[in-house]
């Protein structure tokens, strides 16, 4: 399992050889005091069933005693960026202190002057490939695109992207967000395109749009944002979403309905999400303390409890800090062996193609 994760992340030994002392570092007493003086942290787009966020939020509050003001939990990455822009001069409850966005949104937010640098105590154990060298943004966890299937309504689950075009899946298939703004949905379109383009990343944006044009024309695509409620109700019996969200739903729904989580045979796309602090954060010290918590051993294991692969996985594994029961709950390592980690440049390219081309090529208004 450990060697497999190394292979997925394409890490060199130098990237993961952080000392135990660094990994165990704690935020300073001065930072803790300053954060407690501010008293509040404002977050955005953190649904409690996403990647174990409910437990992570409660863990942070219990440890430091701060209040968390949670804005729009179902927002997408693009919405988070717009929230910073709209609240540059607002120090009230609608101004987010921190954001959690898809990898490609980190560099663009930095270029637009919307985020500020901060390096957490465990900085050296975060792979260089997943962080900004100056500390403006840093990867925190990742998953792969999967099919979440309501087994009461779908007797034979699709095994690959091409299966979704079959007539038996009419009016069943949904994205987990708006592909014009949400990273998860953009990644779903890209993954379908990667499969259709035979693994050619450069052609996958256009191929993904073509796939969804056909899916929509056949009547198989449902222009509704897929999540656990419409899945259970039968509105969106098949949802294309990150594996950790699907696995979390499987637990939460507890067999009502039974849920199958399928990692497709081709077009297996991994998505890294990154954290950053708003350049206009009303509570900058609380924001920094939040980052310290997320990148601590406790915070990172919180992601694993929510079926996400924490960005410091290799460091935690090397130091024997991952409980076996958490490893046992993950899907088999073999399911991830074909995972593709698009580079920042590739993500920027296909994001532009998909977000700008969705309306004209596919023409389905996802809500």
From TrEMBL:
Keyword terms of this UniProt record: Signal
One Gene Ontology term of the molecular function aspect: thiamine binding
Residues passing through the membrane, by range: none
Domain of life per record: Bacteria
A GO-annotated cellular component: outer membrane-bounded periplasmic space
Any one GO biological process: thiamine transport
A Pfam family of this chain: SBP_bac_6
Residues making up the signal peptide according to the UniProt record: 1-23
Protein name: Iron ABC transporter substrate-binding protein
